[in-house]
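HUMAN: Forgive my ignorance: could you write out one protein's sequence and backbone structure tokens?

ASSISTANT:
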Amino acid sequence: MAVELRHLRYLLAVAEQGSLSRAAAALHMTQTPLRRQISALERHLGVRLLERGPHGTRLTPAGAELARAAPAVLGAFDEALRAARNAAPLPSRVRLGYTGNLAYGIVEPVLRQAVDAEPGIVVDAEPLPRREQLTRLKQGVLDVGLLWSPLADPDLAVFPIVTQPLVVVLPDDHPLAGRTEVGAAELADEQWLDVRSDDNVGPHAELRRIAREAGFEPQVAGVINALAAGLTLVALGRGILPAPGAVVSIAPAGVVAVPIAGLAVTLLAARPIGPPAAESVQWLLRSLAGLAAGEAPTPAAS
């Protein structure tokens, strides 16, 4: 049997508690396995460490000597662990905001792959409304924001990540469900589901703009708070829904996504203009752009 640190901890618990029963309780175990472990230690050392007396279990001289040395051994081991942890560099953190309602199928898969490629960087990602992202970016509370186009702000550097075709999500028994694409004008008489937004941008704003150019105003059957909820309502026949093309990755059974001819939206990454971005931020921007283009992420510079 190899002597392990746990054997010293067991013996020290008996010395401190003064009995096997109290030591077992302090160690969150029963007496039988505790007694077996100490007996195994005794056999390995070839000496008795405990003896039973009229007032309970007590340490033999050999047991007392080992118990006196145990705290120093255990303390040195714990200190070595702390030193090893402190010697390792702390992970770099990047604070990321993204549009939770509209980034399905883009943000989460990209982040998963990017983080797997560089475990030394921790991405604190939080879904935030567009206006809140812009405020936090300018305050320096966020390092990177992911938002739908358009975005023009003199305080922010903006980088295109991926352009998505705009699709309309339809029930699979809808007359247009089998089409390869539809024109905006063909949707004039439909009942629309609208995702709540705090700004006039993104897929829904783009559709409304094109609808007005086509001579109609979308008939809104309901306003929803999340894209996933809207997909369920489409499957139930409550309306149709404009969305970025990546929605097909989370579309439930009973719906289809058909591209709207000539319409697309671009997901943008934004960071504050100022000093050069930290390497971790530059790495995240590179990885987001590369992964959206189907490229393998590359490790951050050391």
